[in-house]
Amino acid sequence: VAESVTSSLEPIDIARIVPVVKERAWLDDIRSALAEQGLEEMPEYVQVPLNDHLIVLYAEDTPTNIRYLEKETLGELEVPLADLGPMALENLRALLPEIEIMGGDGLYLLTAGGNYEASLLLYDELWTHQNFPVEGEIVVGLPTRDVLMVAGTAGGDGLERMRKFVKDAYEDGVYSLSPRLFVRRADRWVVYE
After folding, report:
1. Are 157 and 106 spatial neighbours (Cβ–Cβ below 8 Å)?
2. pTM to 2 decimals?
3. Is there a contact between 15 and 142 (Cβ–Cβ < 8 Å)?
4. Is the per-residue pLDDT at 5 higher than 80?
5. Mean pLDDT within 85-90
6. Whole-number Å distance between alpha carbons of 30 and 8
7. Angstrom distance (rounded) from CA 135 to CA 157
8. Which residues, other chains included, contact 105 with Cβ-Cβ below 8 Å and sequence gap of 6+?
9. How many CB atoms lie within 10 A of CB 168?
10. Could you give the 3-state DSSP secondary structure of residue 176?
11. What is the dihedral of CA 145, 3, 123, 11, to 10 degrees?
12. Cα separation of 101 and 33, whole Å?
């Protein structure tokens, strides 16, 4: 599925709007790329912060591409920003195939179709020790949009194995997302140092 950062004349299908987790730096990269193409007016994408490094953008997922929502378009849809997040999350649940958790021995990998693994961070009910029997706090790595890894802060070498994999995948991957690790604290994702 290709990503589209420019507007389209096609109307937006509200039932296909989904949340997309990206690093804040992605916005700067997109602005630079559009400026190089000669675009003078930069789109204002609908976004909310997830933490200091990650944002949630909203996009229409079509069979051929992912089109990011602009603030102007959101106004035309008459969807309040407060309603957008819950609606998009429900749409994502309907569009994604079943989430698979693979691995063990302190290191897990989640798969859900290859485009929205990072958006699984928004599934609050997923992030329990029952689903991920790791020691210590739950830590995730999301080096590319199709890789979401999980380890614990204590016990075993899962965290170090994940740290190395995330570094390598971020540097070599297509659709790189983040070289950082994030830990779940007080129902929020913060950078794990």
Report:
1. yes
2. 0.89
3. no
4. no
5. 96
6. 17
7. 11
8. 156, 158
9. 12
10. strand
11. -170
12. 36
